[in-house]
Amino acid sequence: MPNIKPGGPTKVRRTLDQEIQGIERAKTDLEKYLEQLYRARTDVAGIFSDTGESRGSRTATLVDILQSAKQPMLVNDIMAELENRGRPDKRNLVGASLAYLAKKGTAKTVERGQWVAVTDKKLSEAA
Is the Cα dihedral 26, 27, 32, 35 positive or negative? Predict the structure, then answer.
């Protein structure tokens, strides 16, 4: 039988516990880092299309959609068109972009929830 000093197993157990805690902290840090990488990958996918060409900003795409529309568009219709163009987006982000465009005078609502592009600066001042 090996010669074990008093407290020997306790010290080994404590050392192992410390190692396990260190590994668990490293695992938590790695999971956070992986989450950041996944978010970055999603952001990059949102910027570039499958061909690798830049799709431009959300607001520029919204202006293009509104300018090409033949009639006022509801947010749901705008979101559907964004998806058709390969740029699906969350409703709150689309709403925020539309609010930004309205503040800038590039878009406005003509009826509740119906959006149009402002083509004449005089119209945007009257809104």
Answer: positive
